[in-house]
Amino acid sequence: MKRRDFLLGGLGVTAGIATVTSGSFAMGQMMSGGNDAYRPPLSLQDYALPALDEGTSIQGKQVFKLTLQAGESQLLPGLSTETIGINQNFLAPVLRFKKDQTVRMEVSNRLNETAALHWHGMILPATQDGGPHQAIKSGDDWVAEWKVINEPATYFYHSHTHNHTGEQVWRGLAGQMQIIDEDRDAELGIPHQYGVDDYPVIITDRAFDKSGALYYSNTRMQKMQGMQGNVILVNGVADSVLKPKKSLVRLRLHNASNARFYDLHFSDNRPFQLVATDGGMLEQPQTLNRIRLTPAERADIIVDLSDGKPVSLQNRKGYGNLNTGMMSNGALDTNFDIFHIEPSQAEKVPAFTTAQLIRLPNWFNAQGFNVDIATTRHLQLDMQMGPAMMFGSGGFFINEKAYELNTINEVAKANTYEVWELRNPSITHHPIHIHNTQFRIIDRNGRIPSAAESGLKDTVIVHSEETVRVLLPTGPYKDADNPYMYHCHIIEHEDAGMMGQFTVT
Ligand code: C2O
Ligand code: CU
Ligand code: CU
Predict the structure, then answer these.
(1) Per residue in 50-102, pLDDT tens?
(2) CA-156 nearest atom, ligand 1
(3) CA of 420 to the centre of ligand 2 (A)
(4) Is domain 46-179 given the CATH code 3.40.190.150 in the classification?
(5) What secondary structure letter does DSSP report for 151?
(6) Global pTM value
(7) In angstroms, rounded to a whole number, what is the distance separating the alpha carbons of residues 484 and 79?
(8) Is the CB of 429 under 6 A from ligand 1?
């Protein structure tokens, strides 16, 4: 099998900047700066199917036992790497459960550090959310329990520890959750057998030093582009080959990277069908041959492999997190392979031809809103450029305020609908995530988004110089004291202060 090399460029992580004079400071140096990141020779490995955990049914609840642990992992050939994970040394099992079940997550922190574990995308009481207010001290246990009211789709769980989310996710505290509805999938002809025709594709990038240790830098310079690495992992394994059991597969594409944006396509440019995004199915499958995923976004696609030909999922350069109109992401922004598929042994099954999937909530249409809007909020994403950002106290804000653990920035009313207008005058793109809701995108700079973005979402990219409006239900849970977060999902931006919190009362 012919395959491409890994990222060709170096990592822009070691720039030494002596002087700063203007808003567009020394960007070239930062992006293409020194390269001491180790890029090992890699060889093809088998696709790693994550352990599947469906919980245990105890007194009407699905109970999951999740232990945060540290250990050694073999991420690079011949080298061992210190990592952390959940029930394993790096990353986590896929948790599968169903709508209307009550899930009970029994989390034990066996790390030597405080952690928090957040259920990204879930609509649930604030005390169960697993944000920075639900910190679990080393050695302690924490239980989160909620009734699943989200729609079937692919979700995310990950560290959300105050000031340490980026570094803990990087070291491995992240996994995928799936809310499944096998009957509906069967009716619609959507592949849904885990590890048979339904495969998680959890994409992360990592950087290493020569000893094999994970390299993480959180300097002020690093924060701007977020932490990116030059080794791409799928489910924790570099350069892997999936040998699917069926010729029609669902890939649950999931960008679990701290900061890297992906513009994905197949090496032969074959079309695929997008059936679901963050929080549920689309109304109709969308036939595409590329899809962009910014950090925390998920996309379920159906790929027809009945021609038996090997194919690679690849990233196309040009979609870094910086406004490329002004500068390029340099060495970090290249074409590279994500992973490979070899379907030669797959059992042939009929093509996917379903035309209608579900009905989306009819909150608005081209004529206007069909629900009452309780409030319109204006959130401006700010990056303070120049010396203040690099040497001052922060530089990442929402509405000119950096995140503070004890400040409630917004108060919403339960069981209402709101419009959030996300305005990004800064020079980088920010994927904005709002907890405890699944929203729909109204428009981008006044224009209706593409059909691929028409479904339920919990994370939306707000490009530089863009204003994105979303319509969100505030959900049924009231709690005047415990907030939910909203933030940029470039985790280094989040940790640096581009986060706020809201209560629902
Ligand atoms: Cu994916 Cu506030 O998190
Ligand atoms: Cu979240
Ligand atoms: Cu950001």
Answers:
(1) 999 999 999 999 999 999 999 999 999 889 999 999 999 999 999 999 999 99
(2) 1
(3) 16
(4) no
(5) P
(6) 0.92
(7) 40
(8) no
Tokens encoding 497: 């202060």
CA distances from 198 to 134, 192, 244, 250, 301 (A): 33, 5, 9, 5, 10
How far apart are the C-alpha atoms of 494 and 340, rounded to whole Å? 32
Residue range(s) of every CATH 2.60.40.420 domain in the chain: 3-44+187-341, 46-179, 364-504
From 465, 464, 502, select the one nearest 482 (Cα to Cα).
502
Which residue is associated with the tokens 């986060």? Answer: 499
Structure tokens at 422: 């996300």
Whether the Cβ atoms of residue 121 and residue 114 lie closer than 8 Å to each other: no
CATH number of 3-44+187-341: 2.60.40.420
Residue 321: partners with Cβ closer than 8 Å, 6 or more residues away: 225, 226, 259, 260, 261, 294, 329, 428, 429, 490
Would you place residue 372 in the very low, low, confident or very high pLDDT band (cuts 50, 70, 90)? very high
Q: How far is the CA of 342 from the centre of ligand 3 (A)?
A: 36
Radius of gyration of the chain (CA): 21
Pick the CATH number of 364-504 from 3.40.50.720, 1.20.1250.20, 2.60.40.420, 1.10.10.60: 2.60.40.420
